[in-house]
Amino acid sequence: MTDATLNSGGESPKNRSLHTLDVRTKRRNRAESRFKAYGIAAILVGIFFLVVLAVSIIRSGAPAFSRTVVDIEFTLTQAQLDEAESQLFKTKAYQTMFIAALKEKLDARGLDVAFDDAAIERLLGKIGGDLRSFYAANPDQVGQAVSFQLPASSRVDGYFKGRVSRDTLQDSRFLMKTDLDLVDALHDAGIVRTAFNSTFITGADSGVDNPGGAGLGASVVGSFFMMLVVLVLSLPIGVAASIYLEEFAPKNRFTDLIEVNISNLAAVPSIVFGILGLAVFIQFMHLPQSAPLVGGLVLTLMTLPTIIISTRASLKSVPPSIRDAALGVGASKMQAVFHHVLPLAMPGILTGTIIGLAQALGETAPLLLIGMVGFVARGYPETVMAGFTEPNSAMPAQIYTWAARADASFYEKAWGGIIILLAFLLAMNIIAIILRRRFERRW
Amino acid sequence: MPLLWLILIVLGIAAAGYLLGRGRALASVGGDRRALHSLPSYYGANVALKAVVPAVLLLLVWLLAQPFYVNSVVSGLIPDSEIAEGSSRGLVLAEVRRTADGLDAAVAAGQMDEGFAGNAGADAAEVTQKLKDAGQIVTSQITAPILRAAQEYRVQNAAGRLWMAIAVIAVAVLGALWGLRETSAEFRARNVVETGIRALLIGAASIAILTTIGIVLSLVFNTVEFFRLYPASDFFTGLNWAPSFSGRGGASDLGVLPLLWGTFYISIVALAVAVPIGLFSAIYLSEYATPRVRAVAKPMLEILAGIPTIVYGLFALLTVGPLLMTVFGKEGLGWMQAGTAVMTAGLVMGIMLIPFVSSLSDDIINAVPQALRDGAYGLGATKSETIRQVVLPAALPGIVGAILLAASRAIGETMIVVLGAGAAARLSLNPFEAMTTVTAKIVSQLTGDADFASPEALVAFALGMTLFVITLGLNIFALYIVRKYREQYE
Fold it and tell me: How far A415 CA sits from the closest chain B CA (Å)?
């Protein structure tokens, strides 16, 4: 309407009805809805990216949790055991017996597929060693039927997961096209099947040549010890620093210096903290490389600003009347803070700490520099102390190691590792949200 | 392990001191606590603090100082003739340390007895063989001076550790006794304890300063070392990045410009993705969206900020890269050679930055006073006209600050570019080519097997310094802009 009165050009306002929109109003309305559409589109694009990310993580990562196994019942008699142990190539003897048993089983089911020993080796890897160590560890199982679940080789695994297909497969010493016929036959017979891959969750890294046996377990333990260091150091230091800055610090140069430093540290790229860790903890103090202790120290320095900022916010949200009341009944300033303000701020502090820990858990770049990547975490630490000081990997570093390996079957492991990592992060964030909902007080 | 025991012993002394101090204070007034200046627990805390704090400080100083002392003693045992051509005293000392660690481990494993490991007259060849048998890593034949030095190193370290334990425990006990002696009814225990706690709080707050000093020192020292080996002018103006690998010989070209170009190019692509999407989301969320939509959409976008960067890196390498290849690669338009490229990394980094831009801008747009909007509506402006001509100009400094902060994030981002941008440093305008960044090269130079004292490894510190200065400058500039213009509408 304002528009109509102001608009002197064109037709005279008198001749116009308010019920029909003029050209200019229409244009402005169109511009309005266009602008709104841009906003909706922007949000939809953002959410679309999130969905694509989620879908690609789940689709690519889910296969890591299953593996192809060969299910076979196998009986080894005492006579066979003695015979195998008497030979020069003992594991080879075990393998031959096993293959004979497998052939028998196939014949019994009326499956007629021709295969040789080499095909079985391509399918299962060298199984003789596993069999021998099994019977060496369980001598009472000799003579009884034992049902073995042997993991299939990574190529066969890839065949069932669609990574390897018949058309693109090139005959090699790893897998031949004819082997796939055997695999299909075994699959139809129910001998080859897909099972849950518990090794992936509990196992340790396996080295470059064995993607099938790679697991995240050891690096979860490494991450756990690292987070323990971060928690034990950053929570008390962060809370102490925040209490000083929020409750006691006088307004002077020194306080300003601390404040500026904290806000700058919060914005320093994480890789710079890695350089700091490398130079100070490893070069200068000679702490062990790739140890969770060093990783924890670096991540502590990185997390401190986050924890300090959130702790200060929750200290600030405690109303001054609480302090005044405490001071009024004769508490000292220190008592007012430690007995009254701090307990009231605790839920907020814990929430901030958990979120800071979650951030630290996913941080990768500093870990690369303190040597967590070159190291292959082959096993669990033996003692609690070794958990801190012995070289280990951490979840994100392990994921990076897998992603950087040339063998494409490790990619699946990397995605699977991401699912586990995100599950941890999600759990931590949910705990933080619950804490906040349950205990946060609004004044 | 002895360190852990030492700390436990000190804590034990403190706990005992707490009980004794508390008891003594109560005893001094015959159990009538009203006659005490402070609550009894403060007398206990006073004793405990005096036992723990000096002892722990001594422990920290000793732990830091002992390696220097031992190194200087051991270093004196190594004749100059022992330092091979192309090697340095530091490397020989590292060898000594390794040998000493090997001896320790061999003794701990029971494969060598203490007498043999410490035997000054032992034959070096025999020791080498024994160490190898014990499964210890021995780089080469241990020479007699190195073995002597390693043995001296062990002796010195063992002695140092013993004296440290004695000194720390003595200080703890003395501190506790001092605290106990002070304890009397008139002693102002609360005031003393509170002063002590206050000092601890200040100490905790100063860690931020120490961290910054640590960062700056570790960057500066190594950067200076690098510039001694490689001219600074070549580093800052060189157009070529071609480090030679250790052992292969030949001079390296270590020009930073291609890396900076890669960094900026990727950041620009990332901002080109993140700024429009983030800004329009923020506008929609703060001006148009119903509370319900806002409650759903805002956290959804913010999830993007909570995802670890390694996830984005993998997403770039394994999903976005191949996807772009099918469109722009050989089968499509033929612009792209490989999945890792500026476009890949930039796009994914842009996704990561959307919530940074949107959250910060959202806060800033919300901070624009409603009166400005009402004024514009009163004059007949439509909603979009109000936003474009009133709200956005008012919020502009804040938005620019937010974008600068996002840019500093993009420049410092590591994992996405390590996995998604490729490894080749080049100066090119084609966004579908692989380029590399400062952060990616810091990782590759320090995780490779280059010798730590070589310019190829030290250059990482100069790169880190460059990165630190750039991001710091951007952050300060962003804060300056936000601060300077913020109060205009408040």
Answer: 8
Complex ipTM more than 0.90, yes or no: no
Domains and CATH numbers, chain B: 2-187 (no CATH), 253-489 (1.10.3720.10)
What is the C-alpha to C-alpha distance for residues B429 and B268, in angstroms, rounded to an integer?
Answer: 12
Q: Check the CA dihedral A169-A172-A177-A181 and report its sign.
A: negative
Count, residues in chain B:
490
C-alpha B305: how far from chain center: 20
Question: Which 8-state DSSP code applies to residue A391?
Answer: -
Q: Using one digit for the tens of pLDDT, what is the confidence trace for A96-144?
A: 777 777 777 777 776 666 667 777 777 777 677 777 777 777 777 777 7
Q: Do A243 and B277 touch (CB under 8 A)?
A: no
Question: Quick check: helix, strand or coil at residue A150?
Answer: strand
Cα dist from B104 to B79, B109, B116, B293, B471, whole Å:
24, 9, 12, 65, 45
Given a cut of 50, whether residue A417 has pLDDT beyond it is yes
Residue B323 CA to residue B339 CA, distance in Å, equals: 8
Residue A133 at interface with chain B, using a CB cutoff of 8 Å: no
pLDDT at A90 > cutoff 80: no
- Beta strands A192-196 and B241-242, pairing class: unpaired
Residue A251, CA distances (Å) to A257, A261, A313, A318, A333 in order: 11, 15, 18, 21, 17
CA B268 to CA B272: how far, in whole Å? 6
Short-list A395, A204, A367, CA closest to A290? A367
Q: What is the DSSP letter of B140?
A: S
Instruction: Identify any residues that bridge with B254 across adjacent strands, giving them in sequence order.
Output: B241
Q: How far apart are CA B112 and CA A442, in angstroms?
A: 66
Q: How far apart are CA A177 and CA A187, in angstroms?
A: 16
Residue identified by tokens 């670890």 is: B308
The answer for B 388-447 residues in CB contact with A (under 8 A) is 388, 405, 408, 411-415, 418-419, 439, 442-443, 446-447
Across B165-172, average pLDDT: 92
Question: What DSSP state is assigned to residue B161?
Answer: H
Euclidean distance between CA atoms A402 and B318, whole angstroms: 12
Question: DSSP characters for B352-382?
Answer: HHHHHHHHHHHHHHHHS-HHHHHHHHHTT--
3 state SS of A149? strand
Cβ(B277)–Cβ(A46) below 8 Å = yes
Q: Strand pairing of B241-242 and B253-254? A: antiparallel
pLDDT beyond 80 at B470: yes
Helices A23-61 and B342-367 cross at an angle (nearest 10°) of 130
Question: What does the pLDDT read at residue A1?
Answer: 47
Q: How far is B376 from B168, CA to CA, in rounded Å?
A: 72
Mind telling me how many Å the CA of B365 is from chain A's nearest CA?
14
> Which residues of chain A neighbour B211 with C-beta distances below 8 Å?
261, 265, 276, 301, 304
Nearest CA-CA partner of B352 in B315, B393, B389, B402: B315
**Terminus-to-terminus CA distance in chain A, angstroms?**
46
pLDDT category, A210, cuts 50, 70, 90? confident
Q: Please give the average per-residue pLDDT across B370-385, as a whole number.
A: 93
